[in-house]
Amino acid sequence: MATRTQPRSKAAKALAKPDLLDIYRLMLLSRRIDDKEIQLKRQNKIFFQISGAGHEAVLAAAGRVLRPAYDWFYPYYRDRALCLALGMTPTEMLLSAVGAAEDPNSGGRQMPSHWGHKALNIVSQSSPTGTQLLQAVGCAEAWLRYTGIDGITDKPVKGDELVYVSVGDGTTSEGEFWEALNSASNLKLPVLFLVEDNKYAISVPVEVQTAGGSVSKLVSNFPDLLVAEVDGCDPVASYEVLLRAAEYCRQRKGPALVHAHVTRPYSHSLSDDEVVYKPPKEREEEAKRDCTLTFPKRLIAEGVATEAEIAQIRQQVDEEIEVAADMALGSPQPTPESALKYVYSPDVDPTSEQFDTEDDPQFSGDPTTMVDLLNACLKDEMARDPRIVIFGEDVADVSREQYLKDVKGKGGVFKVTWGLQRQFGSERVYNSPLAEANIVGRAIGLATRGLKPVVEVQFFDYIWPAYHQLRNELATMRWRSNNAFSAPAVVRVTYGGYLKGGAIYHSQTGAVVFTAIPGLRVICPSTALDANGLLRTAIRCDDPVLFLEHKHLYRQTYNKAPNPGPNFMIPFGKAKVARSGADLTVVTYGAVVQRALVAAKELEEKDGVSVEVIDLRSLSPVDWDTIGESVRKTSRVLVAYEDALSWGYGAEIAAQIAGECFSWLDAPVKRVASTDTFVGYAPALEDFILPQVEDLARAMRELHAF
Fold it and tell me: Measured between alpha carbons, how far is 32 from 53 in angstroms, rounded to an integer?
């Protein structure tokens, strides 16, 4: 049951005069940096500004409660005062504002106030509101997993660290806020949620955002969640409430949520003008609560400080900011070509020979299916690396561990993870809520703390709630932090049609939506052997990987193979010539590979046409060398893919071939793909919509005859 706390006087006594003066200094420093940035923006010396004005008191208090480089931090853009309290300097903040190369937050890659600092455990922040919440839960979950996994000898946990995550009141309308609270409470994770409620999400007031106008009332029934409400303009009251909330988390009683009522004296950002939606009276009332004005008056009135001491702090702050601004303005900008760095890991290259053992498989046993060889790879890798954790919907054998002896076990809808929980335990293989963003967001947090999550999204058709996390968070983490942070997680997902009855919502493809994302590797095997070797590379590489598994191929007999052994790897960006030929080339992947092979055999037998079939295997990166070599040999190219014809993955392949191999082409690049519709339920509809052998054979004949 949630608990509501009230301020106690003993906390005020814990803050001595130096503490109180330092809190004031941090509050004023934060405000003055905002003012300096506003000045610089008006002088066109910086390019964006968003302030933390009005939030300083609760954040300066949080900085005294929390432990830099010990706790973990997922702040949002108003958290300037917290970052100062943790040890980030005014110079570092202004380096971010001018977009300097030495900016520790992002190396000039992100907007100002997008905090990130490796040495302080401030994890790189992005712009979308609320996406950091699930990552914070995953970061806290890392403590739980490290503690429970015996095989990890060097556990990077302290035992009483917590994870801080903050949001504005508007962000509490996001679904991921509720998903984060649900998982944090369910797992009793040490997450300190701070809701900084300034009553506005840009121009939308809190009563429009939140039923009843109070998020703390709405969350009061989450089990094991400590809930506290406080005047966030009072740093002493905030310190007390945050101290007890932090201790609650450190004692592993569960998560805590502090609902702090603050103000927003400046507009949302310099791109916004609050005068057009906030009436003068409301702005005047807010101004009376300005913590940078009320707190020094209180210190003087209570005899804690003299007017001279307050004046000295103001002078020191102004001088510090002037020096910081001069240093930032004089700092070099990033070199243009540095933009290409850190899209992927600079240290581990999954396209290299280090990951190529394809020519030396150590086969054992009878040929078996893709499902079995994926399962075998996961078993081998989990035995090799105790940091690997597997979770998703239905991936465990059973959630209620006491029934393991009584049931056969689920192990995934398609049985890819069957038996893993029995072998490696429930701390390493476990079910998640039915929430795709929850799966991927938590995986990012776990990966940031050094674990290796291999998660499953049950169907490609339902991956879209996780797209925000995949595109804006997982793929960008390394680049946006200038290589300070990374999240090398593997996301497995089944996709595709050719299984009767799948219809619109169980037959989708759409790889192009993900191959268009820099920073994300996209892999798609068509055989059991390739699936085993490519998944092993995905797990061992240092980049995030989307691993596409075609469910039609899971148990086909034509793509079986024996187990190639625990060190069998196929590098990314290495296509396979599935069939050699001389007259035309087919570039394809996934379930269309086998159909292309059947069509190619038919053409050779009936028409005497020699067709080469290239199985891409790796969709991003692409093996352009193998494609180019084949095109130079055959001079005719057919690109075949399961996605819709228009705007699909094959369009980019065709465009690249036309652009790079034009001199060798004797015919236009041709494409065969699905119709520009969704996949239908009736077998006749599905057969018509998806590319079939006869479609491929007809296109090959037309191309050869050109």
Answer: 9
The Cα–Cα gap between 507 and 141 comes to 33
To the nearest 10°, report the CA torsion of 178, 184, 186, 187.
160
Q: Report the alpha-carbon distance of residue 95 to residue 87 in Å, rounded.
A: 15
Type and span of the H or E element at 430: strand 429-431
Judge contact between 491 and 427, C-beta under 8 A: no
- Amino acid occupying residue 691: P
CA distances from 341 to 332, 478, 698 (A): 17, 10, 45
Least confident of 98-112, 265-279, 354-368, 657-671: 265-279
How far is it, in rounded angstroms, from Cα 239 to Cα 190?
18
Token representation of residue 614: 């290239």
Is 261 annotated in the active site?
Answer: no
**How far, in Å, are 12, 72, 125, 126, 514 from residue 472 at the CA level?**
42, 20, 11, 8, 12
Pair of tokens at residue 677: 């519709």
Residue of 506, 550, 552, 704 marked active site:
506
Of 173, 184, 177, the closest CA to residue 138 belongs to: 184
Mean pLDDT of 546-550: 98
Which amino acid is it at 144?
A: L
491 three-class SS: strand
- Element of type H or E holding 355: none
Bond into 621 cis (ω within 30): yes
Written as six digits, the tokens of 350 are: 């999954």
**Global pTM value:** 0.95
Cα diameter, the chain: 100
| Residue 389 near residue 451, CB atoms below 8 Å | yes
Instruction: Say which residue the tokens 């601004």 belong to.
Output: 325
Phi and psi torsions of 618, nearest 5°: -110, 115
CA distance 218 to 197: 14
- What's the rounded Cα separation, in Å, for the pair 350 and 621? 10
Tell how strand 388-392 and strand 452-457 pair up: parallel
3-state secondary structure of 108: coil
Instruction: Name the helix (H) or strand (E) containing 205.
Output: strand 204-205
DSSP β-bridge partners for residue 72 = 163
For residue 512, give every residue at least 6 positions away whose Cβ sits within 8 Å of its Cβ, in sequence order, or none. Answer: 643, 647, 648, 649, 651, 652
C-alpha count within 13 angstroms, C-beta hemisphere, residue 470: 27
Describe the crossing of helices 436-448 and 131-148 by its angle, rounded to 10 degrees.
Answer: 60
Please tell me the predicted confidence (pLDDT) of residue 10: 45
State yes or no: pLDDT of 7 exceeds 90: no
